[in-house]
Amino acid sequence: MASTLTILLPLFALIAVGYLARRRGVLDGNAGSALNAFVVWLALPALLFEVTATSSWTALWQPGFILAFGLPTLLVFAVVFVLRRRGGRHIADASVDAIAATYANTGYVGLPLCLLVFGRSSQVEATIATLIVVCVLFSIAVVLIEVGLQRAAGSRGRTLVAALSRSLRNPVVLAPIAGAVFSGTGLTLPPVAESFLKMIGQAATPCALVSLGLFLADRPQGAETNRRASLALSAVKLVAMPLLTWGFAKFVFHLPTRTVHAAVLLAALPTGTGPFMLAEFYRREVGVASSATLITTVLSLGTLTALLLAFA
Predict the structure, then answer these.
(1) Considering only CA atoms, which of 18, 45, 16, 42 is closest in space to residue 29?
(2) How many CB atoms lie within 10 A of CB 12?
(3) Chain center to CA of 284
(4) Hey, how many other C-beta atoms are within 10 angstroms of the C-beta on 34?
(5) What is d(CA 148, CA 160) in angstroms, rounded to the nearest whole number?
(6) Which pTM does this prediction carry?
(7) DSSP state letters, 169-208
(8) In the chain, where are the structural domains located?
(9) Distances in Å between the alpha carbon of 122 and those of 136, 173, 180, 234, 262?
(10) pLDDT by residue (tens digit) across 100-150?
(11) pLDDT tens per residue across span 44-79
């Protein structure tokens, strides 16, 4: 319990800082959007490029774990997306809802938590999960949102081509692709470049959390009508995701016990700030995404502790 609190409480502190700064008038109503733009266009792309450019793809090639974690994540994303579409939601809104139900906070919570629980060897699994969530899942959501927006703009004949073109110009999608290409060359980043990327990349999470606090302080009254959707997505994230991952890891891919536990713990993480950043950037479902992040972060204090006790 103490280790979980140590990792999760700074999340609440950063959200509270943003909330209080807005309530006290230290930051104005435009500060949240400005911070979020900084994260989407600068900090997060720098982080993604640095992670992929410095990763050893030989060490990260663990097909059993990749499938055990990746397939449930993509499956839940697809199911939530289809259900929300059948419920009459716009493609862009359904995409934000789907990523809110599946986007695990692997970077800020998963990496340190796995290190505390399983030791340094688990950092490989945590890194793989981070790449799946941040690079693959986020990119899919961006493409779907762009498809929805292009369709809404009336460009039906070239919707997919236009959406893919816009998505590839999105720095969050472009950065990990460029990093992977650089890694494949066998070159190493110059120390100065790596230090720069690390410095700006480390700003992604705190800025996104402060931005979330700013949004919550200015939360529109109409956002309360989405409470049921936020609770449903939170339940999917904290309950359905780890259960499905456990089933895949243990019974489908027959992974070692420690690897099964690592996969389940990573799947059970609260929703990260990615969905909120995406929703705020495109102005779609911001209330649902922010609520899912807040609710899952609060409830994960109990669910993660229960998992750690079960693993003991």
Answers:
(1) 18
(2) 15
(3) 16
(4) 13
(5) 9
(6) 0.80
(7) HSHHHHHHHHHHHHHHTT----HHHHHHHHHHHTTHHHHH
(8) 2-218+228-311
(9) 21, 26, 22, 26, 7
(10) 999 998 877 787 788 778 887 777 888 889 889 987 898 899 888 888 887
(11) 788 878 877 887 777 778 899 999 999 999 999 999
Task: With H, G, I as helix, E, B as strand and everything else as coil, classify residue 50.
Answer: helix
Paired with 271 in beta bridges are: 104
In whole angstroms, how far apart are CA 244 and each of 96, 141, 156, 255, 299?
21, 21, 36, 14, 19
Residues constituting the chain: 312
How many angstroms separate the Cα of 280 from the Cα of each of 100, 255, 289?
13, 38, 9
Measured CA to CA, the distance from residue 271 to residue 293 in angstroms comes to 5
Yes or no: domain 2-218+228-311 corresponds to CATH 1.20.1530.20: yes
Here the contacts of 196-199 (C-beta below 8 Å, separation 24 or greater) are 196/46, 197/46, 197/47, 197/49, 197/50, 198/50
